[in-house]
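Lab manual, section 2.4: Encoding a predicted structure.

Procedure: take the sequence of the chain (221 residues), apply the prediction step described in section 2.3, and record the output as C-alpha cells. A sample record is shown.
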Amino acid sequence: MREFPPRSPLRLVVLISGGGTTLRNLLDQIAAGRLDARVELVVSSNPRAGGLEHARAAGIASQVIERLRFDDDAGYGHAIFDACRNVQPDIVVMGGFLKFVPIPPDFEWRVINIHPALIPAFCGKGFFGQHVHQAVLDYGAKLSGCTVHFVDNQYDHGPILLQRAVAVLDGDTAETLAARVHEAERAAYPEALRWIASGRLRASGRRTWLSEAVAETRTTG
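Recorded output:
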C-alpha cells in the first residue's frame, strides 16, 4: 500500500500550454485560503501561452520548454522534469498541458492531470478539449464529467484519484456541456490536491481511497 504524507504547504509545479485557466483557478483557491499550497514554478510548452501572464502577475517563476527543440519524447521529458527537480515539488500539476512526456521513476505518483470526461470513457490520444464533449454528444451519453488521475506513460490511463459527474442535457452543444464540465473541474482539481496534502490518501494497484488515519507529518517549508 502506498501512503501520501501530509504536506503543508503542498509545493506545486504547474505545466501549461494555453490560457492557464487551471493555474488561475489554483492561484485563486490559494489566495482565498481554500488550498494550502504554493506554486513554485510554471512550465509552458508554448512561449505565447496566456497562462504565463498569470504566473508573472503572481510573481511566480516560469520557464518555456518547447517540444520542437527535442528529437524525441524522452529528451523532452528529461528537460521538463529537470526543471521540476530544480524546485523540488511535491506534485506536478498538468493544467491543459498538451504534450506527451514520459514520467521518470522519481516522479511516479507525483504527476496529476484532469480529463474532461469520466475515464475510461472518451479518453486516450486525440481526446482533448471540444473533441471530448462532441464525442460524448455524438454517442448519446447521459452523463459526462471530469476525472483527476495520476499520470503514467499512457494517455489518460493512470490511477483515478477523483471523479465528478455532470448530466448531459437535451439540447446540449459541445460548448454548453464544456462549460458545465469546466465548473466541475474548477472544484475537483483543488479538492484532489487537498486529498493529497491531507495525509489520508492511500493507493494500492489502481485503487485510491481516503483513510481515517493520517500519515506521519512532514512539512516541506
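Check your result against the sample. DSSP finds five helices and ten strands in the chain.
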